[in-house]
Structure formats: C-alpha cells, structure tokens
Amino acid sequence: MDVELAQLRRTMSETYAPARTTLLDSHFARFTDRSFRPGDIAELYHENTKYTDHDGLALGESAGLFTDDPSIEYAQAAMVPDYEDRPLVDLPEPEALDVPIETVLKSRRSRRTHSTDGLSRSELGTLLGHALGVTGERSIAPSEDSFNAVTKRFRAYASGGALYPVEFYVAIGRAGEALSPGLYYYVPERHALRHLDAGEADSYTEPIDDCFATPAAVFDHTETSITLFMTGAFPRTTAKYGPRGYRFVLQESGYAGQNLLLVAEAMGLAAVPLASFYDDRVNDLLGIDGVNEAVIASMSIGHRPEET
Ligand SMILES: Cc1cc2nc3c(=O)[nH]c(=O)nc-3n(C[C@H](O)[C@H](O)[C@H](O)COP(=O)(O)O)c2cc1C
Q1: Residue to probe by mutation, ligand 1, list 104, 107, 110, most atoms within 8 Å of CB
Q2: For ligand 1, atom 29, which residue shows the shortest CA distance?
Q3: Which of 274, 279, 298 to mutate to test the pocket of ligand 1 (most atoms within 8 A of CB)?
Q4: Residue-wise pLDDT tens digits, 206-221
Q5: Each residue of 145-164: b (16+ CB within 10 Å) or e?
Q6: Phi, psi (5° rounding) for residue 269?
Q7: What residue ranges do the domains of the chain occupy?
C-alpha cells in the first residue's frame, strides 16, 4: 500500500509539473506535500469506498431490499424529520424566471455584501421552489400485480437512488414581508416552511453569527437576510449504498446548492456558499443530533446592496 501511495504521489507531482514554471520551488513542495498524509482518514475513506471491478458494487447491507421492492425506496425517501407539529407557512408558487441560462451561468459570482432588508415570502417561494421543489412524479409498484403502488416524487436536483437525503433549513436573519426572523425547515412536497424556532422580534442574526468562524471583514452575518443550511440524513442513503453513500450525500448537496446559486443569480439576488461554520453549533441550532443528521453545507442569500 505504501509503495502504491508513494507511486501515486509521484504521479501527482508529475501531473502538476507545469505548475513549477509559475510557482517557487518552496511553494510547489508545500502544494504537493499537502496531499493525504499516510493513514490520513480522508484517504482511507476514499480508498475504502471505491467501486472496483473485482468486488463489484459494494452496496449497503440492505441493498437487496431496494432491488426486490422499489417501494422501499419510496419509504426510505419519506423518512424525513418529523416537524408535523410545527406551524406550517405556505409559500407562494415560484414566479417565472426569464433570464437565459447562459446569462445566469456567466454572471454568477459569490456575492458577499447584502443589503439589510429581508427576502419576501414570494422571493423565498421562487428561490426554494425552482431550486429544490418537486418537479415530477411516478407511480411505482413492488410488482406488476401489486395493489401497493406508491407515488414517488422527483425534485429539481439529482439524487442518488432518488432518496433525497439532503434537508434544507432556512434561518431568517431579518424580517421581510410577512416572514418573521427565526428558523424554518423547507418541505419540498408541500412547498412550505415549518417554523421551528422564533427569533427575537426583529432579528435572528446573532444565533446565526455565532455559528460561523468567518471574520466580519469577509462576511458580516449580522447583515445577512437568510442563511440556508443543508444537512445530510446519512442513513437514508447509506442503508442502500453503504459507506459510499456518504459521498453521494455530499455530492447531492452540491447539486442542490448550485441550483440555489443559479436561481438566486437569475433573481438578481446576492448569494455565497459559506463553509466556515462550527458544525456542532449549527447542529445545536437546528436541533439535530449531528450523527444521523448533520450539517454539511451552508449559504447566505439576500438582496444586493443598492448601487451607489
Ligand atoms: C465548498 C465551498 C465553500 C465555500 N466557503 C466559503 C466561505 O466560507 N467564505 C467565503 O467567503 N466564500 C466561500 N466560498 C466561495 C468561494 O470563495 C468562491 O466560490 C470562489 O472564490 C470562486 O468565486 P465565484 O463563486 O464568485 O465564482 C465557498 C465555495 C465553495 C464551493
């Protein structure tokens, strides 16, 4: 293994050799040395979750269930956090976006300055509905003669096995039209928010700010309109795909996240992904255990500041 790793690292430095022309030797060494260290947990995880042609697809222990009965997939995807008793806030249907996709792709930038006014309920409906909403459905039955057909819903972003293990929490920092500051959970099937935690009357920016290591000079959370946290409900996917399913959950948050960034751009909003959060502070804020469901990504979204 060590020999293979040494070989791998040599190959890496050869691959990156052209960078030598632009980097000082000392910088270049630092760059290549900051690959995985021997025994690094990230490398072990990656190696151990590779699909290879000699052991086939190392699926999870319950994978057979999924193959034999597709309705298991439905049941698994329906295992969402139970916030049924929390007040439901309906969102307006998304408004049409008439910006060509190539314009949006070219103009998207991480925008770190936001105006201090909050997003309206209608803007949230447009953002969340287009980026994350239900876009189709299909009836699936365990077998052809089964009466137990279930309707499976599909969303705007791709999901391994359509299990949708990524959950979305919206922390509203500042009051916008008809939405009070606090913590909400997005329910794509209902296109609605569950109100989980009420903030102070006019601001929820302090609890959000406490979750981040970002210096105010880089990003000022007290100015933010909404902070969206994505969590991974890992067992929903690892039950089928085993440990490799963890990768799928992270990938999926990237697909959903890019949808959010592009829709925000098409709406003329300011959005930026923010990875520098203190995990367990966020998990505590969201009221999740940090093990079976844990924060994996976040972004901040608001209005762009007025042109001066
Ligand atoms: C996974 C990920 C994490 C990021 N975390 C932060 C962050 O914590 N703070 C920040 O200011 N920008 C963050 N960004 C934004 C990047 O700095 C930004 O995407 C990059 O500079 C490229 O610029 P662009 O998005 O405007 O094209 C992050 C981006 C990604 C994809």
Answers
A1: 110
A2: 273
A3: 274
A4: 999 999 998 888 888 8
A5: eeeeebebbebbbebbbbbb
A6: -90, 170
A7: 2-48, 65-303
Helix (H) or strand (E) holding 266: helix 244-266
Radius of gyration for the chain, computed over Cα atoms and rounded to the nearest angstrom: 22
- Tell which residue, 190, 194, 72, 95, has the closest CA to residue 134: 190
Which pLDDT tens digit goes with each residue over 43-94?
A: 899 988 888 766 656 666 666 666 666 667 667 666 778 899 999 999 999 9
Do residues 222 and 209 make contact, with C-beta atoms less than 8 angstroms apart?
yes
Q: Which residues pair with 250 in a beta bridge?
A: none
Are 154 and 138 within 8 A, CB to CB? Answer: yes
Superfamily of domain covering 65-303: NADH Oxidase (3.40.109.10)
Pick the residue whose CA is nearest to atom 19 on ligand 1: 110
Ligand 1 center to 150 CA (angstroms): 40
Question: Which helix (H) or strand (E) element contains residue 130?
Answer: helix 121-132
**Model pTM above 0.90:** no
Helical (H) or strand (E) element with 272: strand 269-273
